[in-house]
Amino acid sequence: MSAPKSSLPNKPITAERVRSADLPVAWIMMLGLMVAVGPLSIDMYLPALPSMADDFGVSTAFMANSVPAYFLGLVFGQLFYGPFSDRVGRVKPLYIGMTLYVIASILCATTDNEYVLFVGRTMQALGACVGAVVTRAAIRDRLTAKQTAKAFSIMILVMGLAPILAPSLGALFLQFFDWHSIFWFLAAFGALNLLLTKFFFFETLTEENRNVRPAKEVLSQYWDLLKDPTFNYPAIGGGLLMGAMFVYISSASELIMDTYGVSATHFGWLFGMNAAGFVGLTQLNQWLTNRFRILSILRFGAMMQVLSAGTLFFVGIFLGTDAWLPLVLACIFFCIAGLGLTQPNASAIALAFQKQRAGMASALQGSLMFSVGIFGGLLLNLFPLNPVLKIGIALFVLMSLGAFLIWQIDRNLNLDDAE
């Protein structure tokens, strides 16, 4: 029997409740709030980077390396939580990850050394990433492939508010407090996630569906996943598309605030516009999945991103930093907004045929995204190009590769065949 839509279920799950016929909207929205800790942690402190750089006596570009440091934790943390949650269930990893996140946030709030901050940011990510892994896997545990695509769209509606509001909220904190207050807020948000886990998150992985293969076979299981065409094309393709957004996040402060002289407050609004476009298209995606094949929507969204990134690339070549800021922002907007059509559907396809390794599949997919963010963000700092061209090259190359892989997915793939 499915959980009521109007309430958050808090009873232990039974076999009958797995893969329910109705879409448990309230439960999905709660999962979105749990995942929101990730984008909040990434985006809320971005307006503070210049002031943090002043306090630590370094450049803004150097301080921006704390973003790839965070992504590093996301990559390795997810690879651990995936198989762990497949073995012990979805609840225990949430307790472990969120406790680590709270401790790391307090470390970031109290340090006066930039390298300790980088370590704290990595630890934050090691804790925060559990939400993304476990919630995606829990949705796969309960719902069908088409429901999963809709569920991811609903979840993004909630978690998507984080990148919309986070920079503005961070700028608001800076008006009344210093940058340390941002990390105290994040510690409190992590504590809220612990309470949600305690009172409202029920176990979705039944005993019979748990992965009992020896832990020493984890690497071979990951390798099997990468060889599975029902997983690798949508996961890697979607990972490249989403990873491009994290490359943009790494360079956003330098591009918008340093290059164009936009204030921290206005930066928050401009940054939030991209997230609003992302969230808006995810909600459109719910309507589209009732009328078109998921793969068709995915391909359309990928082409939208490639065309937008290509335009930004040529703007960077011919105009550079003389380019009109609204034009640069418009190109970036459609690159990021297009994720609303690619991410829910790529994730749904990648997870559809995974059952006992849904946690591993969720983890590997997330790690691929953030690996792109790490290496793309670091590579941006190696080339002495104008910031507009650097971000144009990065987005165009990554999104072109992602779209190419999306087109390799078997067009006759029937998601109804997934258990």
Automatic annotation (TrEMBL):
UniProtKB keywords: Cell inner membrane, Cell membrane, Membrane, Transmembrane, Transmembrane helix, Transport
Lineage: Bacteria, Pseudomonadati, Pseudomonadota, Gammaproteobacteria, Moraxellales
Organism: Psychrobacter piscatorii
TM helices/strands, residue ranges: 21-42, 62-81, 93-112, 118-139, 151-176, 182-201, 231-249, 269-288, 300-318, 324-342, 363-383, 389-407
Compartments in which it is found: Cell inner membrane; Cell membrane
Name under which the protein is recorded: Bcr/CflA family efflux transporter
Family: Belongs to the major facilitator superfamily. Bcr/CmlA family.
GO molecular function terms noted in the UniProt entry: xenobiotic transmembrane transporter activity
A Pfam entry, by short name: MFS_1
GO biological process, one term: xenobiotic detoxification by transmembrane export across the plasma membrane
